[in-house]
Amino acid sequence: MLSERGLETEIRLIRVESEDHAKVLDFLGSPTVRIDGVDIEPGTGDSRGFGCRVYATPSGIEHIPPVALIRGAISR
């Protein structure tokens, strides 16, 4: 998605090993995607946690972020 726009950046994968580590990272659950430290999903509020994360999509609840959500975050 980044290369589609002629962008290059470092992509970091962070393994969250514990609830304490999740708190330090202000983690929202797995998988979480951030761009420049900002979560890709607007309005995430206080839904922090050390567990699985879900995303609401037009076709229902998904366990991976929709491509459109990631593209929108890149555009912002």
Annotate the secondary structure layout.
Layout: H1 19-25, E1 34-35, E2 38-39, E3 55-57, E4 60-62, H2 67-75
How many domains, as an integer?
1
Q: Which structural class matches the secondary elements?
A: alpha+beta
User: How many β-strands, per DSSP?
Assistant: 4
Record the strand order, biggest sheet. 1-2
> Major β-sheet, in short?
2 strands, antiparallel
Question: Unreliable runs, pLDDT <50, ≥5 residues?
Answer: none
Number of alpha- plus pi-helical segments: 2
Give the percentage of residues in beta strands: 5-15%
Instruction: Please tell me what the overall shape is.
Output: globular
The helical percent reads 10-25%
Please supply descriptive tags for the structure shown above.
single chain; 76 residues; two-stranded antiparallel ribbon; 4 strands; 21% helix; globular
Characterise the protein shown here.
This protein is an alpha+beta fold and 76 residues long. It has one domain. Helices cover 21% and strands 13% of the residues. The protein has 2 helices and 4 strands. The strands form 2 sheets. It has a two-stranded antiparallel ribbon with strand order 1-2. Strands 3-4 form a two-stranded antiparallel ribbon. The longest helix has 9 residues, at 67-75. The chain is globular. The model has no long low-confidence stretch (mean pLDDT 85).
